[in-house]
Amino acid sequence: MGEKGWRRAAAAGVAIAVLTAGCAIPQGQPGAAEVAAATSGTASATLVSTIQKQLNARSEAFSVQVSGSASASVKAVDEAFEAAMKLDDYVNYTVKSYNYNSKSNGKTATVSIKVVYWENATQSAYVAKRSKEILAEIIKPGMNAHQKVKAVHDWILLNVAYDRTLKKHSAYDALASGTAVCQGYASLAYRLLKDAGVEVRIAEGTVSTGAHAWNLVKLDGAWYHLDTTFDDPVPDVKGRTTYSYYLLTDEQIKRDHKWTQTYPAATTSYQKTVAALKAKDASRQVFYSNLEEAVGYKYLLADNSASTVQEFALRIKAAIKAGKTTVKVRYVHGAGKKLDLQQLLDAVPALTSIQTSTSSFPLGNADDALVTITFET
Known about the structure:
Radius of gyration: 25 Å
Number of helices: 12
Oligomer: single chain
CATH architecture of the largest domain: Roll
Strand content: 15-25%
Shape: elongated
Number of domains: 3
C-alpha cells in the first residue's frame, strides 16, 4: 500500500528542498507575496508564525526577512518552515515541495520561498466544505467519539479507492476523484475526524512496499493506530468494509508498520476498551456489540480459533449443525501455513468440497491468520 515519492524531504542549510525518489522541483525566482521581519536568524516565533499563515493560505510564493548572511538566513528559514508545518498535520502533508532563494547585504537577508502543494487553496476550501457536508450525513446527534471514528472510517472505505497510478496524494483527490494513495486516505481521515471533534494525527513510516501514511486517534485519553488504506485493500470492492487495522496498539501494528517520527505511545487494548464501555454504557451496547463483531474480537476466543486439523474439523461440524456453509476461524500461529484440505475432508466425512481463503489478523499473535472456509455437504 506504500508508494514512492509521496513525501518531500527538506535538508536544513541548503537553498533547495528535494522530493524523495527524484521528484522534480520548479526552479526560478519567486515573486514576493509578503515581506515579514524577524528579530534573529533562528526559528523565532515571529518567523514561524509568518510562514504558518502563508502555508495555511496555500501561498505559492512569499518572502521573509531575517538578519544574517545568505547561508545563515536559509538555515533559519528552513528550521522555521519545518516548525510551521509541524503545527498542523494537514498542512504538513499538503506541502509537496519548496525551495529558497536568499539575497543578503551581510546583515539582513531577504529569503524568497516558493512552495508547491499537493492541494491548492481552492481545493482545500472544497475539502473543508465537503467535510462539513459529509459529517452532517454520517454524524448523528448524541454520537460519542467512538461512534464518530467508526462512521468516518466506514465512509472513507465505502467512497474512496486506492489510486494504483500513485499520482493522487491529497484529501481533495480522494473526494473529487474518489481515488488516492495512502497520504490522501490519511489526510482525509484527519480532516473529517478533526472536524468531528476527535483528536487525530497523521503518522508516516514504512511498510513492506515502501513509504506509508496512516493516522493516530485519541479516544478517552488513549491513542490508537487507524489505517484506512490497509482496511481498504486492492482491488476495491464496492460496499466492503474491513477492520484489521482499526484502532491498534503499537505492538499490534508494528508487525508490518514502522514509523520514522516520534508519536504518542499507543498502549491501550481497544478490545478491552470496548468491553469496558459495553459494560457501563447501556445506551450504546448494541453499537459496541456490533463493533466487536465487525472488528473481529470474537476470533480471539477459543471457540473461534484453531491450530490443528482436528480443531478446524470441530468448527466445521458446528457450522454444519447450524446450517451454515461457511465458517471463519483464527488459525493460531498459522500465518504462512496451508491447511491440509484432504485431511479436513477425511476428518469431516459429510463434506463433498471445501475451499479456503486467508487474511492477516493483527489483533492476535504476530503469526496468526484468519481463515474463511467455504464448504458443501
